[in-house]
Amino acid sequence: MRRLLLLLMTALPALAQHDISKVDPAPPDSAIATPLPEQQRRMLKKYDIPDLAGAQQALGSQLIDGRLPRPLIDYITRDGAVEQRISIFEGGLVVLNMTGPASIRKRMLIPPDALLAYTKATSPGELRNVRPDSLVPPEPARRSQLRVYDADGSFVERIFHPGKVLPKPLADEITPLRDLLRAISEDREVSNSIAGYEPQPGDELVADDHKIYRVMRVSGLVVELRCLTVPTTIYVSKKDLHQYFIGKATRE
Question: What's the whole-model pTM score?
Answer without folding.
Answer: 0.82
